[in-house]
Design a protein that fits this description.
CATH architecture of chain B: Up-down Bundle
Order of helices and strands of chain B: HHHH
Strand content of chain B: under 5%
Number of strands of chain B: 0
Largest sheet of chain A: none
Helix content of chain B: over 70%
Largest interface: A-B, 26 and 23 residues
Number of domains of chain A: 1
Low-confidence stretches of chain A: none
Shape of chain B: elongated
Low-confidence stretches of chain B: none
Number of helices of chain A: 4
CATH topology of chain B: 3 helical TM bundles of succinate and fumarate reductases
CATH architecture of chain A: Up-down Bundle
Mean pLDDT of chain B: 91
Strand content of chain A: under 5%
Structural class of chain B: mainly alpha
Oligomer: heterodimer
Chain lengths: 111, 128
Amino acid sequence: MSWRARGLRPWVWQRLSALYLVFALGYLVLTLPGLPVGYAHWLAWVGHPFHQLLFLGLIPAVGIHAWVGGRDVVLDYVRPAWLRLVLLAFLGFGLSALGLYVVMVILGGGR
Amino acid sequence: MPSSNPLNRRPVFLDLRVIRLPVNALVSILHRLSGLFLIVVLPFWVWLLGESLTSEAGYLHARAILHSWGAWLALFSLTALGHHFFAGLRHLAMDVHWGLTRDASRWSAWGVLVLDAVCLPLWWRMVV
């Protein structure tokens, strides 16, 4: 396991991903409630290139942000090394799997 | 843990009823808790996104969930997201050395809590 992600670098990644999340989540919260109801509308909205790009950007942003934040919490509160390893592996694989799933759903969603 | 070395015998003071929690400490711990909560509920929201896009039936299923027990999860998630968002903006402001004094950080912490409360009815309206 690589422990190179320490020091200032994860801090910077945390901030960069935060800036994207402020933009993307702010946009979603402001626009989604005004969306007309219906499967066709929903498919068209998600399939719009701008929204596809927005979601594809959310994958690394959420992944990095949740990874650095979750890692900080685990390293701060969990002492046993084996439990840290289990939790961090669970977090890392879980986030990667979710990311891959969203890629499939978003790129296949515009049918 | 009291050490055998008398020079190292520092007082242990961990009585949760007596420890003071200033407002900036409260906002800080809520930022962590809300972040942790958002990680926990993330798989559900990703699954719901997928379900809503698979087919018309899946879309209706996702809507039905959001109009029953999913509404509570949505309300909690939006509240947590709102708090994490505002408290995060406060941290970003501090990163560029804005509001670093003790008074300013207390005011901004109160501001985050007020924004949380102001947004609660908005989240409620969005969910119901």
